[in-house]
Amino acid sequence: MSKLYGFCAALALSAVLSVPARAEAPTAATVLATVGGVNITLGDLIITRDALPAQYKALPDDQLFKGILDQLVQQEALRQSMGDTLSKKDAMALDGLKRSYLANEAMIVGIKDAVSDAAIQKAYDAKYKDMAPQLEYHASHILVDSEEKANAILVEINGGMAFADEAKANSKDGSAANGGDLGWFGLGAMVKPFEDAVVAAPVGTVVGPIKTDFGWHLILVSETRNKAAPALADVRDQIVAEVQKAAIADLVKSVTDKATITRADTTGIDPALIKDLTLLDK
Hints:
With 282 residues, the protein is α+β, with helices and mostly antiparallel strands. It has three domains: 24-83, no CATH class; 86-129 and 229-253, no CATH class; 134-227, Roll (Chitinase A, domain 3), CATH 3.10.50.40. The chain is 50% helix and 16% strand. It is built from ten helices and six strands. The strands form two sheets. It has a four-stranded antiparallel sheet with strand order 4-3-6-5. Helix 2 (42-50) crosses helix 4 and helix 6 packs across helix 10. The radius of gyration is 35 Å and the shape is elongated.
């Protein structure tokens, strides 16, 4: 029994000693596939994934790893099937892709510090801090096809019929189900004749008929309020987009002002030539 134990222990020790050393940690240069002598590396996968839209980046890593590797292998095989000689069109297209990529990278680097909390707060204050109060209106309407019908409904309302009930029974637009309620809105949200009537209407009094391109309206303004400036949290995405846009514009102006640019006289070139792909073969 002791001999058997010793033999098994020796085998176990031999197995431990014979385990190969752990491979070095993968790097960007780690080769994952080779197609016709061209290596597809882990770095290639990283770059490809980084350029994917957000919804694809959210896929499981194992699914992305296999999918991207398969795609790059297929792309390289297709590329090699074209041979080594590039047409003029191919060469110009590759130059265009390089220009576009590097320009985008320059943009990212150039504005990376532009969207700071301080810049966002400054842009918000500039836009909303001194904003004059703006009146908003809560109104309902009844929309019908003729002035005669609108007047007939107005008589019924003045006789005691509820505005909301008349809207539900007669109005031809989608607000009818809600008793004609249009909710809150500010100036510029409605067509001009409607807006003018709303602005002039005493609160709680039905006005009309008012004609617009949609038909004839009876309008009831139930209340008004001063529109407060929105909280920064509610408009942050919009402010960020505006700060980015301004930063990009400033960056583009700065680099183009510094660049040596010579523009040729294009007055004799037909703009329609940009559609002529045959010029690329000449």
